[in-house]
Amino acid sequence: MLKKLIILILMIQVFITGILYSQTKSAFSGDRTKFGTELTAYMGPNLNLVQLANLKRFISRWDSTAFNAEIMDRIMDVSSQLSSRQMRPIPHFNDYLLTLNNFIDYKRDISFINNWLKGLSELVFNQMFTNENIDRFFKNSSLMVKENVLFESGIVKWKVKNKSLEFLHDTAIYVAITDATLTCYSQKDSTEIYNVTGKYYPEMQLFRGTQGIVTWEKAGYSRKDVFAQLSEYTINMAKSSFSADTAKLTHSVYFKEPVTGLLSDQAISFATKEKANFPRFETYKKQFKINNIFKGVNYEGGLTFEGANVKGTGENAVPAKITLLRNDTLYLRIRSKEFLFSKAGLTSQEASMSLYLDKDSIYHSNLGFSYFASTRQVNLFRTNNPVSKSPYFDSFHNLDMYFEYLSWNMNESKIILSHARGASLGQAQFESTSYFNSAYFLQLMGLDTYHPLNRLMKFAEWFYSETFPVEEFAKWLDKPLEAVTGLCIDMANKGFIYYDRTNNEVTITKKTKDFLDSYAKRKDYDIINIVSQTKAPTDNAVLDLKKYGLAVNGVSGVVLSDSQKISIYPYNKQLIIGKNRNITFDGVVEAGLFTVFGHKFTFSYDTFKIRLQKIDSIKISVETDKKDQLGNPLVKNVDNLIEMGTAELYIDNPNNKSGLKSLKQYPIINATSNSYIFYDKIPGLEGVYKQKDFYFKVDPFTYENIDHYSNQDMNLSGEFVGGNILKPMRQYLVIQENNSLGFNMTIPPEGIEVYDSRGILYNTLSMSNKGLIGSGSMKHLTSTTVSDEFKFYPDSMLTQASTFNTVKDSSGIFPILSSKNVSIKWLTQKDQWIATNSAENTFNMFENGTTLDGKLTLSPARMNGTGIINLTDSRITSNLFSFYRMR
Question: Assuming Cys at both sites, which of 276, 286, 606, 838 could form a disulfide with 821, CB separation 3.0 to 4.6 Å?
Answer without folding.
Answer: 838
